[in-house]
Amino acid sequence: MHNELKTNDMQTLESNKTTIEESTNPISLNLPDFTTDSYKDAYSRINAIVIEGEQEAHDNYISIATLIPNELEELTKLARMEMKHKKGFTACGRNLGVEADMEFAKKFFSKLHGNFQVALEKGNLTTCLLIQAILIEAFAISAYNVYIRVADPFAKKITEGVVKDEYLHLNYGQEWLKENLSTCKEELMEANKVNLPLIKQMLDEVADDASVLAMDREELMEEFMIAYQDTLMEIGLDNREIARMAMAAIV
Question: pTM score, two decimals?
Answer without folding.
Answer: 0.85
